[in-house]
Amino acid sequence: HQLSMSTGLDYEVGSLDCTDSLCLKYKKRAGTQWYYHNAPYTLLSKVIENATGMDYNDYTAEKLATTGMKGRWIQSDSSNLFWSTARDAARFGLLMMNEGRWDKTSILKDSDYFGDMIEPSQSINKSYGYLWWLNGKESILYPGFTNSVPTSLAPSAPEDLYAAMGKNGQFIDVVPSDDLVVIRMGEAPDNSLVPIVFHDEMWKKINAIRKK
Fold first, then answer.
1. What would the pLDDT profile of 50-74 be if each residue is shown by its tens digit?
2. Half-sphere exposure of 167 (CA within 13 A, CB side)
3. Residue 123: closest CA among 3, 2, 4
4. Is the model's pTM score more than 0.90?
5. Staple partner for 203: which of 109, 124, 134, 157, CB 3.0–4.6 Å?
């Protein structure tokens, strides 16, 4: 449920980034509510540390070492953010494009999990997998809203696109049908939780280039 934003935690709190126990209040049974809530995602780092017995940064570096990808998780207020370069983000996108394999090395060995990750993780928001946004679905539940809208994540993008959409509009877009990875880094385009409208506008610009 932490991976799929369906914990059922109360979202009417002072900050959706707050991981203090006072901010984590029960609202609905897990799996019956979808809401874009950063705190449960941030707490996944503790789940991984408890399961592996390793520091989160050490574990990440060890698993991604084969790809040459560099970066570091850095605490920013209550959020845990991964800082890296556009080239490193592209390496991660290529790792996803190749279904968890880098050259001949299988980094993500659980193929069933990989498939589940980029498919709807629950029935409430069909445009969301396990921390990945999914294009080409018949409806989407936008961050900050409680009702779905009959449209896709990015109508201007290929239907099989799936996207990691990070803080301030940092995007890793993967399009298997085009063998394409698109990276966007820069300043926040607006004050939304996830700049989905900006993301679609970006794809309108990309399409203008692709059609030439």
1. 999 999 999 999 999 999 999 999 9
2. 15
3. 4
4. yes
5. 157
Question: Mean of the pLDDT values across residues 153-180?
Answer: 96
- The Cβ of residue 76 has, within 10 Å, a number of other Cβ atoms equal to 11
Q: How far apart are CA 137 and CA 195, in angstroms?
A: 18
CA dihedral sign of residues 177, 183, 187, 191:
positive
Percent of the chain with pLDDT over 90: 90
* Residue 153 contacts residue 137 (beta carbons within 8 Å): yes
Which one, of 114, 115, 100, 128, lies nearest residue 3 by Cα?
A: 128
84, 89, 96, 103, 177 from 106: Cα distances, Å: 22, 18, 11, 8, 21
Helices (H) and strands (E) in the chain, counts: 6, 8
